[in-house]
Design brief:
Blueprint (H helix, E strand, L loop, with lengths): L1 H21 L15 H13 L3 H14 L4 H17 L6 H21 L3 H18 L4 H13 L16 H12 L3 H13 L4 H20 L7 H7 L6 H10 L8 H6 L19 H9 L8 E3 L4 E3 L8 H16 L26 H9 L19 H15 L1
Antiparallel strand pairs: 1-2
Helix pairs in contact: 2-3, 2-4, 3-4, 4-5, 4-6, 5-6, 6-7, 6-8, 7-8, 8-9, 8-10, 9-10, 10-17, 11-17, 12-14, 15-16, 15-17
């Protein structure tokens, strides 16, 4: 009788444990301090994501979910973390890892949307969704990002209650980035402008201002021209390579056709004695080969003593001083005016804080800034060692193109 009673009791306990296990508890572990709460850990985790400290961000978000596994903003943050991780797995051997991270990102995002329980969390989740869609770029990603944006901005919320995004115009900031990466630059300028016009939006204003200037630069550069898909991709880059410059000089400027008189007088320019081995399998091989044949200063192959061979280094980033030298040489070839190479030498002082008049690139920088092909900062800095961004490259090339027409 007692054995039978014990068996029945064990069955009841087993059934109860299953029921309890199937229930979703909001708080799975106890707080150890006042700041040990989901909102704090979520906000801190999101800041760490912004700082690209993904591992520590993940630890913070995990802690938030331990305290409340129904916390929709933290679940959305997990989605964002996996989306970012999918970008970090770029090697061929990491294809399966990348696919797995993308899949988990979408799973977490779907779960976050399902867990939304008020207008505040709805805004947070859908702004994060914009970021996830922009990173993953799956099928119809922009359409999904725009839909999330529309849901977010239609929520009536108090910005002061947002633990991380701080202002409702964060939605405009991130959809602006989405439009920018989709090469819809005019739409992006509208959203970035919305951020700048907002009050109490310091967290996003500085970056929005930088991106607005960049998109305006691209819109201005491409005015009257059809921007190719490749050019659009290069335009949004923060730094451009020797291969990028070569491609745009051929396809957008059509440099080899601009001054046929000059190139006909220098027929040896159209021959390549030593084809660099590092461009043989490059997708821009033909464009780079043409650039090499034109002997443009700053874009010539370099002999490497270690390998005892010529290398073009197509993936090497171009600095602003190097780009100035390239533009100067292009102007010399287009005008067939060799005196440009020395026209600014002998100046007693430099108009730039960070470029002395006795440096090898001073003349080139003076030439290109005087012709508005490149610009210095308002404080007088030229930043010669900074990389050239895609927008500046595009603007300079289209200005050259306008001059040649």
């Amino acid at each position: 009788m007692i054995d039978q009673f014990i068996k029945i009791l064990l069955v009841i306990l087993f059934v109860c444990s299953i029921i309890m296990g199937c229930q979703t508890n909001k708080q799975t572990i106890k707080q150890i301090s006042y700041t040990d709460n989901p909102v704090y850990h979520y906000a801190r985790g999101m800041k760490l994501i912004l700082e690209n400290d993904i591992n520590n961000a993940n630890a913070k978000i995990n802690r938030a979910l331990q305290l409340n596994n129904n916390h929709a903003p933290s679940i959305a943050a997990k989605s964002l973390i996996y989306a970012i991780k999918s970008l970090q797995s770029v090697k061929v051997t990491h294809i399966n890892i990348r696919k797995s991270n993308k899949k988990r990102a979408l799973q977490y995002l779907k779960q976050a949307i399902q867990k939304v329980d008020n207008t505040l969390t709805s805004f947070i989740v859908h702004v994060t969704a914009i970021r996830v869609y922009t990173i993953l770029k799956n099928e119809k990603w922009l359409k999904k990002a725009v839909k999330s944006y529309q849901i977010a901005i239609n929520k009536k919320i108090n910005s002061s209650q947002l633990p991380y995004y701080k202002n409702i115009k964060a939605a405009d900031f991130f959809i602006g980035i989405a439009y920018m990466e989709a090469h819809k630059f005019k739409e992006a300028t509208i959203n970035f402008s919305n951020v700048l016009m907002a009050r109490d939006c310091a967290m996003w204003k500085l970056k929005a201002d930088q991106l607005l200037k960049k998109t305006q630069c691209i819109v201005h550069a491409s005015k009257g021209f059809t921007l190719s898909k490749i050019a659009g991709k290069i335009a949004v880059k923060n730094s451009v390579t020797r291969a990028d410059v070569s491609m745009l000089l051929i396809h957008e400027l059509k440099i080899e056709k601009l001054n046929t008189n000059f190139f006909s007088k220098h027929k040896d320019f159209n021959t390549i004695k030593n084809v660099p081995l590092d461009i043989i399998n490059h997708p821009f091989k033909n464009e780079i080969s043409t650039i090499i044949s034109l002997k443009i200063r700053g874009l010539s192959p370099v002999f490497e003593t270690v390998n005892k061979t010529f290398a073009f280094n197509p993936q090497k980033n171009i600095t602003r001083k190097e780009f100035a030298l390239i533009l100067e040489d292009i102007l010399i070839k287009l005008t067939d005016n060799q005196s440009l190479a020395t026209s600014m030498l002998g100046m007693e002082s430099s108009p730039f804080n960070d470029v002395k008049q006795n440096t090898p690139w001073f003349n080139a920088i003076m030439i290109v800034t005087n012709r508005n092909l490149m610009e210095n900062d308002l404080n007088g800095d030229f930043r010669p060692d900074d990389p050239v961004d895609g927008a500046s490259l595009l603007l300079a090339i289209f200005k050259l193109r306008q001059r040649s027409q």
